[in-house]
Design a protein that fits this description.
Elements lengths: L4 H13 L8 E3 L11 E3 L7 H5 L6 E4 L2 E9 L4 E5 L15 E4 L5 H15 L5 E8 L5 E2 L13 E8 L9 E3 L1 E6 L9 E6 L6 E8 L11 H4 L6 H13 L6 H13 L10 H23 L4 E3 L2 E3 L3
Antiparallel strand pairs: 1-6, 2-5, 3-4, 3-6, 4-5, 7-13, 8-12, 9-10, 9-13, 11-12, 14-15
Length: 313
């Protein structure tokens, strides 16, 4: 099963933002929150010291999943909090029993999630998603059909195309095919794209691979495959998110050391005169260049002449 965006957010915390020896105070929900209006939060005090429990008093912020809540009062006898829901622009949501409660989190989960979205969007055009389709050639244009998921974006460029030209499965051969990818109004096709074939008769199945932008991230439940991301891109996104989150912040020494160790463990030395943020960005660029070389090796650029795309090899 493909990893989810939520898994990626958790990995950013685990590998960069929350060192094991500097984990922030936390508790668990003792009972589920089943609506978006309830203002009482029941917490589990066994996870907290007396000082940590007192830190949840009036004026503190707690975080459950992507929702921040402002604490209005604390009742240690009943182990309950009275809160204001959806604080600081977050959205009130339902939460399950035993969900994690973070106390005054230095790195807000919604911000980390939004940073993941930003990093994925910024990968294109240096890196790109690919989509393969089998299209039957015709004498005129052939409309490209869209996916059921509206977040899957339309192809932008053909990177390879070929067709089988002979016989049974033991002696099958392939040859390149030239196509033209054209932008059209969405009244013609929902993707706004059609293809026209060159030098091939009608009724032939052509196997096409297209370059496209990564799909939009809308929730933590989206999978990497939903967006067209490969698992090899996870370290690229994580390094960028960590750099984005610590930018302009005073971060604990333990977190600084933890991030440095993470980068060095990836065989990238961190110079003493280089800031953690710049080291993360440099490390990210090394990973991007490696991924770009891999993409070029797998999908070499075809030749384009008068808008007609000719196979690269």
């Amino acid at each position: 099963m493909s990893s989810t965006i939520g898994n990626l957010v958790d990995r950013v915390y685990r590998e960069y933002l929350e060192p094991n020896d500097d984990i922030q105070s936390f508790s668990n929900l003792r009972t589920a929150i089943t609506d978006t209006t309830t203002t009482t939060v029941a917490y589990e005090s066994d996870f907290l010291t007396t000082e940590e429990e007192d830190a949840m008093g009036s004026g503190a912020f707690i975080e459950i999943n992507q929702e921040l809540m402002l604490v209005l009062s604390l009742n240690t006898a009943d182990e309950t909090l009275t809160v204001k829901r959806g604080a600081r622009g977050t959205t009130a949501e339902t939460h399950a029993q035993t969900d994690l409660i973070k106390i005054n989190p230095p790195f807000i989960r919604l911000n980390v999630f939004n940073a993941v979205k930003d990093q994925i969007e910024n990968l294109y055009p240096t890196l790109f998603a690919v989509e393969s389709q089998t299209i039957t050639s015709a004498s005129g244009y052939v409309a490209l059909t869209g996916a059921d998921d509206s977040r899957i974006v339309a192809p932008l460029k053909a990177v390879s195309q070929y067709t089988s030209i002979s016989g049974d499965q033991t002696s099958i051969q392939f040859r390149g095919v030239s196509i033209e990818l054209i932008d059209v109004p969405t009244t013609v096709t929902s993707t706004g794209k059609v293809v026209q074939f060159s030098g091939i008769s009608s009724g032939v199945n052509v196997h096409c691979t297209f370059r496209k932008k990564f799909g939009e991230v809308t929730s933590e439940q989206n999978t990497l495959s939903d967006t067209g991301l490969e698992t090899e891109y996870e370290p690229i996104i994580m390094a960028g998110v960590a750099a984005q989150m610590i930018s302009g912040k005073d971060i604990p020494a333990a977190t600084t050391e933890y991030i440095s160790d993470s980068i060095q463990a990836s065989v990238y030395p961190v110079g003493s005169s280089t800031s953690i943020r710049n080291s993360l960005l440099q490390y990210q660029q090394i990973l991007i260049q490696q991924a770009r070389k891999d993409l070029r090796a797998r999908y070499p650029e075809p030749v384009s002449l008068n808008s007609v795309v000719y196979p690269s090899a």
